[in-house]
């Protein structure tokens, strides 16, 4: 029986954290409550915005992230996962502060893209902070995956969907047409499939039933954590 535990360094944002936990439960091959993994969640919504820290000198999120990490250490977590793509910019600093391994959602996503879509071109949909950091470019390049990125206007659409709608509570319907246009335009520019490279975007894609072929990093992170803990992933 699997006995390793998962620590979720969450709150970035709260709904994305809930989405990750839900996917861990749904993707674990379990036939009863007792067959599921033990999961510790620190939903620290006080962690400063990661995009602002990267792009415009906003408050450093690492001290609050370390506070959450210490709580997860105290709980006895065997691995740490973060439901925030942009937060992975700070992962090297966090990993230096603990012996508990972090599982990178970017690395897991890149491996999945290479396995499922060899020779195809990905398009990374993400925050301006993630896109500017080059995090996904590096992870995908390591796995031999080619990618294209949204232009500035398209990045504005993504930021509205992420910050105004999912984080800010505006109706998702207000971004349906811009998102559908964005997907059409990027497909015309050579995208074969889309990486939902912000943990709010799987929520947008699912709720709006957006057309396209998507890779969900939240789901890939959930699967990797399940396997790390010795459980089986539900196919």
Short description:
This protein is α/β, with parallel strands linked by helices. Helix content is 49%, strand content 11%. It is globular and about 45 Å long.
Tell me the count of domains.
Answer: 2
Rounded to the nearest angstrom, the radius of gyration is: 17 Å
Helical percentage: 40-55%
- The low-confidence parts are none
Largest sheet: 4 strands, parallel
**CA-to-CA gap between the ends?**
19 Å
At CATH's second level, what is the architecture of the largest domain? 3-Layer(aba) Sandwich
Query: What series of H and E elements makes up the topology?
Result: EHEHHEHHEHHEHHEHEH
Report the total helices.
Answer: 11
Instruction: Assign the CATH topology of the largest domain.
Output: Rossmann fold
CATH class division of the largest domain: Alpha Beta
The strands making up the biggest β-sheet line up spatially as 5-4-6-7
Q: What is the 3D shape? A: globular
- Strand tally: 7
- Structural class computed from helices and strand pairing: alpha/beta
